[in-house]
Amino acid sequence: MKSCTFVSVIAVCVIVAGIFVLPGKLFSTSPVKATPEMLKLLEGQFMRAAAEKGSQGYMSYYADDAVEVPSGEAIIRGKINIAKTMGFLDDKNNRLTWTPVGADISNRGDLGYTYGTYEFHSKDKEGKATVEYGKYTSIWKRQADGNWKVVLDMGNAGPEPKK
Length: 163
Known about the structure:
Elements: H1 2-26, H2 36-59, E1 62-70, E2 76-77, H3 79-83, E3 95-105, E4 111-123, E5 129-142, E6 148-157
Parallel strand pairs: 1-6
Antiparallel strand pairs: 1-2, 3-4, 4-5, 5-6
C-alpha cells in the first residue's frame, strides 16, 4: 500500500510539474531571433513611416541616445538634437527613399547593421526637380522593451546608380 501511495504521489508531482513547466516551454515569450532579413524589413517600415509621417515618423525609429554622422557636418548626438535637423522631411516636395543592400546581426542578437543606397528627391529654388544619390549605414540596437532602434546613422553622397 505504501508503494502504491508513493507512486501516486510521484505521478501527481509529475503531472503538476508538467502543468506549470511544459506550457512555458511550448509558449515561450522570448523575443523572436533577430536576423539580417528582419532588419531589412524593419528598414522598409522605417522608410514608410518617414514617407507617411515626415520627420515624426522618421525619428520614431531612433533611440534616445542615437548619433547621426552627416556627410560634411559635425556629429549630432541625441534624438532631440537629430530631430531638429529633420524638418526637411515634412516638406511634401521632398522625398527620401532608401534600399538596404546588406545587413548582419551580432552573435548575441542585440546589435545589427544595415547599409545600402538612398535617393533624395526635392526641388531647387526655381522649382526644378533634383535628385541626390548616396550611400548609408545604420546601426540598430535591440532596446530593453524588445524593439529595435537606430543608434547610429551615417550617409554620404554617391554616384547616380547604373541602369
